[in-house]
Amino acid sequence: MSNRTRRRKRPTLAAALAARYDKPKFDEEIQASLMDIPDFLNRKLWTEEDWAHNEEAWDEILLDVRQQRAQDRAASDKKIFAKVRRHNQIKTIKMIKRRERKNRRDEAHARRVRKVRVQGEQNDAVLTQLSRAPQTAAQIAKKLGFERRDVSKALRRLLKTGKAEKLSPKVYTLGFPLDPQRSSQKPKRKRTRLRDLR
Predict the structure, then answer these.
(1) Which of 12, 15, 82, 178 lies in the 20 to 30 Å Cα band around 97?
(2) What percent of the chain clears pLDDT 90, i.e. is strictly above it?
(3) Is the pLDDT of residue 109 over 90?
(4) Which of these CATH numbers, 3.30.70.890, 3.40.50.300, 1.20.140.150, 1.10.10.10, describes 116-180?
(5) Distance (Å, rounded) from C-alpha 71 to C-alpha 86?
(6) What is the pLDDT of residue 29?
(7) Any long-range contacts for 172-177 (C-beta under 8 Å, 24+ apart)?
(8) Sheet harboring 171-174: ordered strands across?
(9) Distance between CA 196 and CA 198 in Å, rounded?
(10) CA separation for the pair 125, 143 (Å, rounded)
(11) Which CA distances in Å does 7 have to 4, 15, 16?
């Protein structure tokens, strides 16, 4: 004979409940508790009006549930896409500022081009007057109809380039343009070396 001992089987839940409760007595208690249900909860006694009222009540409850879910979904979407909307707003603001900066740069470039053109016209007009005879700035301004300060600026530009020269403190005449290569070449400074001092 084997020395193995048989393991006792654990009772199932149904067996445990059957052992704990007396089944006929338990059913009687349930029946008694069911008999205590009020008439307005006992669906066996409901009329068609009661069933219609019940359906209306359930429709109202379901409508409230749908509305609450829609509100929750809207709040969730608002929270989720708040950063996206903020990013789009910042992107739009940056685009507007970039466009404004570009417009300002274009206007500044147009002003510079216009200024250079006007200065060139003034320089040519002053050179034309100086080619006829040496004159003062006041005489040139009177003949051309320019302002005195504009003529003075044109003369300073012409003096700087060597196209005009001064005969006296106030009288100007035509000059010879400077050679750009010679004007750009400056004499090199001789470096003093230590071995030359020995």
Answers:
(1) 82
(2) 26
(3) yes
(4) 1.10.10.10
(5) 22
(6) 62
(7) 172/130, 172/134, 172/135, 172/136, 172/137, 172/140, 173/130, 173/134, 174/127, 174/130, 174/131
(8) 135-136, 171-174, 164-166
(9) 6
(10) 10
(11) 9, 18, 18
Q: CA distances (Å), 78 to each of 64, 73, 85, in order?
A: 21, 8, 9
pLDDT at 189 over 70: no
What amino acid is encoded at 123 in this protein?
Answer: N
Q: Predicted confidence band at 31 (pLDDT cuts at 50, 70, 90)?
A: low
Percent of the chain having pLDDT more than 70? 70
Averaged over 173-184, what is the pLDDT?
61
Domain boundaries, the chain: 116-180
Task: Report residue 155 as tokens.
Answer: 């003369």
Between CA 61 and CA 75 the distance in angstroms is 21
pTM summary value: 0.45
Q: Which two tokens stand for residue 4?
A: 């193995």
Q: What count of Cα atoms within 13 Å lies in the side-chain half-sphere of residue 79? A: 6
Tens of pLDDT, residues 40-82: 777 778 888 888 888 899 999 999 999 998 888 888 888 778 8
Q: Could you give the CA distance from residue 92 to residue 87 in angstroms, rounded to a whole number?
A: 9
Q: Encoding tokens for residue 32?
A: 């008694």
